[in-house]
Amino acid sequence: MTPVLIVALLTGAILFGVGLYGALSQTNLVMIMMGVELILAGALVNLVAFWRFLHPEIYAGQMFVLVVMTVMAVEMAVGMGIAIARFRAKGSVEMEEAGDLKG
């Protein structure tokens, strides 16, 4: 394995780990969404690294990266819409107080 691949994989793993910790340890909806975005970014870095070093001539890897980036943007837009609606209705975006969202 080349040193560049190792650095890319370590960077992706660190992003994934920080995002996982952030998503599981926070109670604020915005912070949880930021953690999920970091998880997806870490997976995306690893995906690009593997694509680049294994099969750079196949463009399906690039298309999959674009799909993941689109999912990241849509997830953040929907999540922020929910957070803004929740803040306007209840004055808080804490997940411990969001029991009324069930059902």
UniProtKB/TrEMBL annotation:
Keyword match Phosphoprotein: no
Entry keywords, A to Z: Cell membrane, Membrane, NAD, Oxidoreductase, Quinone, Translocase, Transmembrane, Transmembrane helix, Transport, Ubiquinone
Enzyme class: translocase
Location(s) in or outside the cell: Cell membrane; Membrane
UniProt keyword Signal present: no
InterPro entries attached to this UniProt entry: NADH_UbQ_OxRdtase_chain4L/K, NUOK/Mnh_C1-like
Classification via Gene3D superfamilies: 1.10.287.3510
Main location: membrane
EC numbers for this chain: 7.1.1.-
Substrates-to-products reaction catalysed: a quinone + NADH + 5 H(+)(in) = a quinol + NAD(+) + 4 H(+)(out)
GO MF annotation list: NADH dehydrogenase (quinone) (non-electrogenic) activity
Functional note: NDH-1 shuttles electrons from NADH, via FMN and iron-sulfur (Fe-S) centers, to quinones in the respiratory chain. The immediate electron acceptor for the enzyme in this species is believed to be ubiquinone. Couples the redox reaction to proton translocation (for every two electrons transferred, four hydrogen ions are translocated across the cytoplasmic membrane), and thus conserves the redox energy in a proton gradient.
Protein family: Belongs to the complex I subunit 4L family.
NCBIfam families (UniProt xref): PRK05715.1-2
Name by which UniProt lists this protein: NADH-quinone oxidoreductase subunit K
Species of provenance: Halomonas rhizosphaerae
